[in-house]
Amino acid sequence: MKEYPFVPYRWNRHSRSELARRAKEFLQAMETRRSVREFSSESVPRELIEVAVQTASTAPSGANRQPWKFVVVGNPELKRKIRVAAEAEEKASYEQRMPDEWLEALAPLATDWKKPFLETAPWLVVAFAEAYGVLDDGSKQKNYYVQESVGIACGLFIAALHQMGLATLTHTPSPMGFLSEVLNRPKNERPYILFPVGYPAEGAKVPVIEKKSLEQVAVWFD
Ligand code: IYR
């Protein structure tokens, strides 16, 4: 059997009080995050998006395959193309495909098929999931737990953006196949989530909605 190298795991031990302080500090920071649908057109340095993608890419993944690709679009013509294609799909969804039950569920968010943020936000970051890997010789390599892995990476991406003070939205135009075409992605990559990224617009509003309480989301056997 081949032996693979291991190194000691480096981590910091904190006192009980410091653990509690850090835990609450992070919770409080994340509690202020909201999905934003009104963006400022103010530019955002590319380096900040790079850091967010690097943070996302620290995510654990099945067999460490890191089956994600973050396609970052700042080009105005490409953003317009994406908006036009997304709105065409969304119009058909809202007006024909989504059942009443779904439309009612979305009512508190006041969303509709119009997606101006796809042009206003300085960056669109499209996360793609690699259904399988492609090796240098062109052969396919199996990936594992792709949905879970990319979901975790996207969660870290959202947290990174929020932590640095930028806003985003987990936008999932449906169906998303047009993103593969517009962005010229290979067959093994499937569009997963489209994130507009930028500063919130001056006076941006968000719907009044609530997160479930700890009691609602946790079950204990201690
Ligand atoms: N993709 C549509 C509809 C939509 C669906 C869900 I579920 C949401 O939480 C929000 C919107 C849109 O982006 O408008």
Descriptive notes:
The structure is a single chain. The protein has 222 residues and is of the alpha+beta class. The protein has one domain (36-200): NADH Oxidase (3-Layer(aba) Sandwich), CATH 3.40.109.10. The protein is built from eight helices and six strands. The protein has helices at 16-31, 46-56, 76-97, 100-106, 117-120, 146-164, 177-182, 214-217; strands spanning 68-73, 123-130, 132-134, 140-142, 167-168, 189-198. The strands form two sheets. It has a four-stranded antiparallel sheet. A two-stranded antiparallel sheet has the order 3-4. A hairpin with a 5-residue loop joins β3 and β4 (140-142). α2 packs across α6 (146-164). Bound molecules: 3-iodo-tyrosine. Residues 90, 106, 109, 111, 171-174 line the site of 3-iodo-tyrosine (IYR). The site of 3-iodo-tyrosine has 8 residues, from loops.
Q: Would you kindly provide a brief summary of this structure?
A:
This protein is 40% helix and 14% strand. It has helices spanning 16-31, 46-56, 76-97, 100-106, 117-120, 146-164, 177-182, 214-217, and strands at 68-73, 123-130, 132-134, 140-142, 167-168, 189-198. A hairpin with a 5-residue loop joins strand 3 and strand 4 (140-142).
CATH architecture: 3-Layer(aba) Sandwich
Q: What is the CATH T-level topology?
A: NADH Oxidase
Q: What is the radius of gyration computed over CA atoms, rounded to a whole number of angstroms?
A: 20 Å
Tally the beta strands: 6
Fraction of residues in helices? 40-55%
For the largest beta-sheet, the strand count, sense and barrel status come to: 4 strands, antiparallel
What is the overall pLDDT average?
98
Low-confidence stretches: none
